[in-house]
Amino acid sequence: MTKQNKNIADSPILNVRNIKKYFPIKGGVFKRTIGHLKAVDDISLSINKGETLGIVGESGSGKSTLGRVILKLIDATEGSILYKDTNITSMKRNQFRPYRRNMQMVFQDPFGSLNSKMSVAELVEEPLLVQTSLSKKERQEKAIEFIEKVGLRAEDRLKYPHEFSGGQRQRISIARALITNPEFIVCDEPVSALDISIQAQVLNLMKDLQEELGLTYLFIAHDLSVVKHISDRVAVMYLGKIVEIAPTSTLFKEPAHPYTQALLASIPTLNKKKTDEPTVKLKGDIPSPANPPSGCAFRTRCPFAHERCEKETPVLATQGVQHEVACHLLDGQDDVPIATKSDPTLKKISKA
Ligand SMILES: Nc1ncnc2c1ncn2[C@@H]1O[C@H](COP(=O)(O)OP(=O)(O)O)[C@@H](O)[C@H]1O
Ligand code: SF4
Ligand SMILES: [Mg+2]
Q1: Reported pTM
Q2: Ligand 1 pocket, residue 22 CB under 6 Å
Q3: Does the Cβ of 316 fall within 6 Å of ligand 2?
Q4: Quick one: average pLDDT of 296-317?
Q5: DSSP string, 75-108
Q6: Whose atoms come closest to the Cα of 237: which ligand?
Q7: What are the chain's domains?
Q8: pLDDT greater than 50 at residue 2
């Protein structure tokens, strides 16, 4: 199914407003709180029913924390999460139970998230035992239905996780996440641990299941090439903030933030056509979110950093249709050349 004919509703299923997640940093002999690690720092986004929003960024940028806060696996420090217009942010466990069925997660490491002592049937049935009042027979029938839906055989239900390949184990995790008929799934790097050839199979399965079951995905990956084929829109995260968000085709054709441009330049398959042209390269490692640079957090690695970037934190501003970017270069106030993919200035600067 192409993105153009995909059935995406106009109303948001999820609306996240100004979410922050700060982890306390303890120090000294009394283990007092001496600071905060800002894993997620003021993120707002919304996802429409049937849509896939990709979230990309290097390791440590706060992607998993954002996913866990949205699913209420950990509490937000500030901000609100609206699920179909209901504010679920401060709901207690009992109040949240009916929503839990609708909001599930697929993890990166299927081996770590699957209890090795449980058979496939037990693993896939378990969410029904915890979250529904179905009879044993009904649970068993539903488990077989979902084991087959994810491309495994009914007889595989008697086997244990170690008897499967990585891709098959991820299929078991997907069956577990889907068996309660959820509407919204956070997929946290679901194919990152798999071989490239297997990645495509699992991504295709997830796309097919999305179409069949009308699912909405928040799809997390550290690699833009993985989100490209499954996402309708992509948000790029850097040190706890979204620095650019756009429809997937816009982000790949007209990346506007220097960080997005550098991430794109690092994908070898996308650069095949370019011969010896220099591209934006990411220098050094991502700084610690416990001690982020002042102003624009990307300034220590940005070829365009100028005086204002040290003092002022850029905020997301509209750049085009559904396209928002947080960079001082783009508001026209600074006498610095605008960085666009087609602008050779970018290449000259990065070459210097
Ligand atoms: N429970 C926690 N306690 C303290 N720091 C944490 C915790 N979970 C994540 N972090 C920190 O938050 C930052 C973002 O982590 P994470 O959300 O896992 O990033 P990503 O998924 O993008 O790799 C990292 O610096 C990580 O060490
Ligand atoms: S605000 Fe400054 S440092 Fe940040 S991305 Fe833009 S030019 Fe680079
Ligand atoms: Mg992560």
Answers
A1: 0.91
A2: no
A3: no
A4: 94
A5: --SEEEEEETTEE-TT--HHHHHHHHTTEEEE-S
A6: 1
A7: 12-102+182-269+277-351 (3.40.50.300)
A8: no
